[in-house]
Predict the 3D structure of the following.
Amino acid sequence: MFNTKEKAIKELPLLAEELGLKYIPGDTFMRDFGKIQGIYEDYQLEIDPHTGDHKRFMFTLKNKTGPCRICSFSSPYNPLNDNLKTFDCAYAPFNRYFKTRYANDKLAELFEKPDSDFRMMVRMIVKWGWWIPGALEKQDGSMCIEDNKLCFSETNPKKPAVLTAKKIKQILPQLHLAAMTVDKILSGD
């Protein structure tokens, strides 16, 4: 599923062109294969298929909910913004998956007292959170919502590899759907 360095570097510009995005060459000395950036299905997107042992898909969300940090990993993050608070979602699997949960009062209230539609969307996000590491070759994956950014990333220092163009094309529609769902959740509608 993964390509060699040379083939991957050749594939990325072609994939960017196919998706209508821009390829930005990387520093091959630093094991950086470049990035793909641009507007994908009405979302600002950055794909970093291989920088060292790290791979990342980052969507810029449309809803400006103010500061928040909701991550699948534990973080000693100490918000500088006094308006952020920790919260527990009424849907317990969300709390198990997202170990770091800081949000402003409005967003925290949405998670603490969700209606049935909201609960369904939160379930979908947790499902994607568990699915994404498997889609990224069952390595250490994470999902993080920070302010207006949604980031899916994966790290595996024991087996550094680059995502192939084929794999990026395969999982990008699912990640886009997750971004749209997170955007809907953050809108509070």
